[in-house]
Amino acid sequence: MKKDFNVIIVGLGLAGTTAAMRMTELGVKDIAMFGTAGGASRHVNAFNLSTRDNTSGDSPTRFAEDVLNVGCHVQDPDKIYEMCGRSQDVYEMLLKWGVEFSKHPDGSLVLRQTCGSSKPRTLCTVVDANHKNGNIGANILDTVHPKLEEAGVRFFRGYTMVSILHAEGRAVGIKVQDEQGNLKDYYAPVVMAAWGGIGRLIDGHFEPMGPGSGHYDLNGAALGAAVAIGAKVVDMEFLEYEPMRLLGVKGGVATTMLATGQPDHGIAIRNSKGERFLYNIRPEGEAGVPKAVLLREMVRQVIAGNGSPEGGCYMDFSAVEREGCTDQWQRFFNNMDAQGVDLKNRWIPFGWAAHSHSGGLLTDRHYQTSVPGLYAAGEAAGGFQGGDRAGGMGGGQAAMTGFICGESIAEFAEFTEDLPECTAEYHEDAKVCDEYLAKARAIADPAFPVMRSEKELSAGIAGLDALLADEELQKSDTAYNSIRVMKLVLNGALLRKESRGVHNRAEYPDEDPALAHGIIQQL
Question: pTM to 2 decimals?
Answer without folding.
Answer: 0.90
